[in-house]
Amino acid sequence: MEPLERRSRLSSSRRHSLALAVALAGACAGAVAQAARPQESVTPPPTPGEAQIVIGGVTPRFAIPDCIPRKGDAASAQACRTVAEVLRNDLRFEGLFQFVPDSLIQAIPAMNPDAPRFDDWKGIDAKILIVTRAEVTGGDLTVEARAFFVDSGQTMLSKRYTGRADNPRVFAHQASDDIVALTQYRGVARTRIAFSSDRDATAERRAKELYIVDYDGFNPRRVTVNGSLNILPNWTPDGKSLAYVSYRQGSPLVFLASIFEGKSTANLTGERKDSQAFAPAFSPDGKRIAYASNRGGNLDIWVANADGSGARNLTARSGQDTAPVWSPTGQEIAFTSSRAGSPQIYIMDSEGLNVRRLTTIGNYNDAPAWNPSKQFSEIAYTSRLEAGGFDIAVIDLGTRQVRQVTQGRGSCEYPSWAPNGRHLVFSCNRGRNWQITISDRTGSALSTLSTGAGNNVQPDWGP
Amino acid sequence: MTLSFGPERWRTTGIVLLVAASLVACGGKKRPPVLSGAGDASASTKAAPPAPEPADTRPDVDRLADEGALGSDTLAPADANTEGGPLADIHFDLDSSALGDAARQTLGQHAEWLKAHPTARVTVEGHCDERGTVDYNLALGEQRARSAREYLVGLGVAPDRLRPVSFGKEKPLDPASNEAAWARNRRAHFVVAG
Lengths: 463, 194
Known about the structure:
Chain A is mostly beta strands. Chain A has helices at 12-29, 74-94, 102-106, 118-123, 168-180, and strands spanning 3-4, 39-41, 61-63, 68-69, 98-99, 128-137, 140-149, 155-164, 192-197, 209-214, 221-222, 230-235, 241-246, 253-258, 263-265, 277-282, 288-293, 300-305, 312-313, 321-326, 332-337, 344-349, 356-357, 365-370, 378-383, 391-396, 402-404, 411-417, 423-429, 434-440, 447-448, 456-462.
């Protein structure tokens, strides 16, 4: 299992940019996963365990006026507009806050961003005021974000972010997460979704390649470039690598791509000549990997160390077992098994003991996804609840009650949870293409992500 | 709502970190041209269209390069168009890997062909129609490939000449959504190499 170095074919016109990039690589090497994140100046974080905004009784009402540029040039104004728009979208998406309508905000007299007149904002019933500023100088962008309690005028958050100017969205995502960090929740604005797409297929090569995209559908980036079938992506918990199944060596094997270093490890699970591997799933601590392999004769759940060593068959028995996922503590594994004659969801501990069946409703249940937040105890999965297609269902592990997340959207399958457990991503087909679709955990706020052309399937929501 | 107040002041760090705005630069990667042909993978349009981005030369899709070489034991490029060939498909009932009479008859002919071509090796592919789920169809495809392979082995074909590969519903022969297409797709497919 040797890592495959990426072949580099640079035209002469690009070598100069590589030289610059190499110089940057040194600065970036210590923080590869943070490469796209702006530098921030930090105010002391809230004491752990003490949220400054507690979501519970009254939903806090935010006012987010337009961003105020620090300079009069067009670039600063444009960056400001983007920052405000993205920040508003991000905070709205979290589903935690209410927002003062734009019409009421427009009626407020021009604000002094360094000394807002809080009476103005009290008058429109805003509880929290977000003030943003932006400035583009040379190729660099500086964004400032402050959050005030309107009733007291106290500052809850005061941040400045600096970095390259060509992606203002990243700054807004950072600010959004920092604002959400004032609550007892963790935001999703900086998270990304990996998925498989056939948009690069040709008549001769039926390729499926992996893509990653911002959680809001922007900035799609292609990860695999091998013209083969690349499917079932799975993020490592540190967000730096993707495990996936690729057919580029002829049969399905698990590969691990360190996607920001351009390196790939082939056949991570060490399949031999005839065996095939599917459905890789890293444990929450990243130290183990579960997957399905048929090296034991039929498809079983195997668990190994993250480097593939120490592999053990946990379900060596008849029936096809696949689609393993870990509980938030890493002590249990849910999976799909046909041992009862139809696909159903089962749970076992991470040693393979204490296997018990979870799903009892419906004759086709597959693809479990265990809510990673310890606040919830539930598993999402794909279920044939109505004739003619599949839907996303969620079963509460305490009550065993099932709620249906999708309905009437054609066929939906392959759910994956956001890291904070408050949203789901899956893929739906309403008669044309399969599209990545997002909802909150109850099935509200359901929307299709425009991630690009083709059929877009098998999403995995990563850090 | 709990109010808790920390000290608030601006801090200017005086440090400007030249952050690569794209992951490409940080890894020292090249910037390939924009993908064309198979679909415009440009930045998505949303229900709330953003203000126009400033013009720049950054490609819409950065390739995070992961170009692996084909392994030396590849029997056939699994993704290429491999239809045709001397060994016909066999077909399966919905949600089944059982071999019917027609399938067994066809496999018998394949066994004869393989005996007459002793150096030939075959990839035995298992495929499903689109109506099942991703994971379960990969499992069903594995059963179908295994079922066909075991039958051929039972007829005397050496097992190491037969490499089973499940494609689930990932590579259907017929992209249509009707009974005829689905029946064609529920198959084992045989790709000869050597």
